[in-house]
Amino acid sequence: MVSMPWVYVGIMFQGFTPEHWCRDSGVSQIRQSCGWNLMDARKITVPLVNTSGVLVHSQCEQYDLDWNNTGLTCDNPESDLTDAHRSKAPMTSCIEGWEYDYEGRQSFVTEFNLVCNDAWVVDMYQATLNVGFLVGSITFGYLADRFGRKTSFLMSNLLNGVAGILVAVAPNYISMLVFRTIFGFAVKGGWMSVYVLITELVGVEYRRMVGVLLQMFFSVGILILTLIAYLITDWRWLQVAFTVPYFIFLSYFWLIPESPRWLLSQNNSTKAKEITEAIAKENKKTLYKNIETLRDDNAQTSTASFLDLVRTPNMRKHTFILMFNWFTSAIVYQGLIMRVGIAGGNVYIDFLISGLVEFPAAFLILFTIDRIGRRLPFATANIVAGVSCFITAMIPDSHFWVKTVVACIGRLGITMAFEMVVFVNTELYPTFVRNLGVSVCSTLCDIGGIVAPFLLYRLATIWLELPLIIFGAIACIAGGLVLLLPETRGVRLPETIDDIEFPNRHKENHPKSQQLTNLLPTDMTTNKETTIV
């Protein structure tokens, strides 16, 4: 989980777009002879353009002049090239490439000159990753059920290692995008396999906590990413660093047990018993003798279809609201992270600060969900994120720290919302369709990830704060929709569609749900007591 954000938001550093302007060989000659630095030369020779009401140096146009015949001198160049001369000078698009204010570092943007008319390719770098995520989640979902969690973890890591290195050695941006898609395909598959395996190995009562803790390790990965990106200055070597953990994972592959639940679904109770006994021994517990008849009580007994998610009113409402929240969480979360790279300031410090604010999210969730419930914190998190985006867009750049604090509050809100949608999703579907419901709804997360870079980077060219307005609007809508969902705190997990459509009717008719029964449910108060299976 620590390495997941390196891939997910590594574009912040691998695809960083620094200040740039047209390269002109005539200007380069004058700069060398006069001893000017890059910024001095830009100030004198690069035209100013109006962007969102502010005059800035053009990034995509240059003066169409023969600089050797302009009479420009080293001593007083601004007097030699007056505003009157500049206003009459012809303009043209960049002919000889670009200069970058990124000395000592290289992103794939600076290597392949992905600026101006080719800037959209940077959007594609993130979009293709999410395309890989989308296909990988579907494919590895099947592979994990067909061949096991452990085997799919092995396959994903092998593919991760190969695809990651191929991205690092890609000769051009077309091949880079192809390999990036494959990389995303494998990374998402590995993440899914590990997440399912871990949650199936622990007791049901601990799964929610384990899920939140896994998200905390994601936040730790963001902090580590800042350090790695600061120390490694070339995007290709940075990609190698992102890939190394997948080779490390392979070194302890044989130490990871298979999921006993999956083994039970394959009628391999002997191996499931062996692993379960090892777990019990490690925890100083004793299994009853009826371990020989171990069965998976939560195994799916009915065939689920997509129509089950939308056929009845409440199921349909849950499905569309959850899909929209997955979509919103992905767009706003990725958008706020990637915005750090275009907002100005020190990208490393800003990214570090924004990563630190994710940690309180996990503690706030653990503190509120069993005291207040799911619905109110979930809705509040979305609304706080949305309102923060609106306020951040309205604060002038001169109030930098105020703007930063408000933006961080928004990041905290959307992080909470993103983490909560995962387990709220599982609590709003009946048993036989639960896995399908989570899979279908979470695909909107990947679709949101495909949309996010285009929404951010293209709208920012119109007005830097325009993406924040869009993020704020959809986050507030998502929060309002969450209030239409039922509260699930203290409510047994639904077993049938009737439990969703008529919750009060079936409240007394069903015995206590077996959904909370662990593979190793504990009726113990001391270590001397046994574990019932």
UniProtKB/TrEMBL annotation:
Membrane topology field: Multi-pass membrane protein
Presence of the UniProt keyword Transmembrane in the record: yes
Catalytic activity as recorded in UniProt: L-histidyl-L-proline diketopiperazine(in) = L-histidyl-L-proline diketopiperazine(out); (R)-noradrenaline(out) = (R)-noradrenaline(in); guanidine(out) = guanidine(in); agmatine(out) = agmatine(in)
Domain of life: Eukaryota
The entry's keywords: Cell membrane, Glycoprotein, Ion transport, Membrane, Mitochondrion, Nucleus, Transmembrane, Transmembrane helix, Transport
Gene Ontology MF term list: monoamine transmembrane transporter activity; neurotransmitter transmembrane transporter activity; quaternary ammonium group transmembrane transporter activity
Any GO BP: histamine transport
Domain Major facilitator superfamily (MFS) profile: 45-490
Gene Ontology CC, one term: apical plasma membrane
PANTHER family, alphabetized: SOLUTE CARRIER FAMILY 22 MEMBER
Protein family (similarity comment): Belongs to the major facilitator (TC 2.A.1) superfamily. Organic cation transporter (TC 2.A.1.19) family.
The protein, known as: Solute carrier family 22 member 3
